[in-house]
Amino acid sequence: MAQTHVRLYIHVVFSTKGRFAFITPEIESELFAYIGGILNKLGCKLLAANGTSNHIHLLISLNKHANLPGLIGTVKRESSKWLKGKSNMLGKFGWQDGYAAFSVGHSQLPAVTRYIKDQKIHHAERLFEDEMRTFYKQCEIEFDEQFVWG
Predict the structure, then answer these.
(1) CA neighbours within 13 Å on the CB side: how many for 132?
(2) Which of 1, 19, 87, 108 is the most exposed place for a label (fewest CB within 10 A)?
(3) For residues 73 and 38, is the Cβ–Cβ distance under 8 A?
(4) At what angle do helices 25-41 and 68-86 cross, to 10 degrees?
(5) What is the DSSP letter of 94?
(6) Digitized pLDDT (tens) for each residue of the chain, 150 residues in all
């Protein structure tokens, strides 16, 4: 095959440092638009984004050259700089050091998009930590409670 064709999707989750409630409804849509712009510049596409005041979920279509740690690092670094410049109240903003990323099949896109869109409803009844424990167990990811929430 002379051409390279790639269709890769990932569901990425990361929280604010210490899960502090930095992400207010007033900045949320602008934040996701900004993250979408970062991803576009990297040749990727933001398909869905949502979260709560202390964490976000992103559904991303990757390009054929995507380096996941570099991509997420750039998104976190650039969005953090942008948020810190929004107001004095966000001057101490930061994202957690790590992230979680899960592969998504093309046929799963509608369900994952719905899941992301319903984050506020979902978290009215469930803690972030419980959500992530479920993801880790479903994906058979070993994790250490002592380090995973930092």
Answers:
(1) 20
(2) 1
(3) no
(4) 140
(5) -
(6) 578 888 999 999 999 998 888 999 999 999 999 999 999 999 999 999 999 999 999 999 999 999 999 999 999 999 999 999 888 777 889 999 889 999 999 999 999 999 999 988 888 887 777 787 877 788 787 877 666 555
Q: Cα dihedral angle (113, 117, 119, 121), rounded to 10 degrees?
A: -130
CA distance 116 to 122: 9
Residue with tokens 């409670």: 145
100-104 sheet: strands from edge to edge: 45-51, 55-62, 8-15, 100-104
Cut 0.70: pTM above it = yes
The domains found in the chain, sorted by start residue, are 8-148 (3.30.70.1290)
Amino acid at 18: G
Overall size of the chain counted in residues: 150
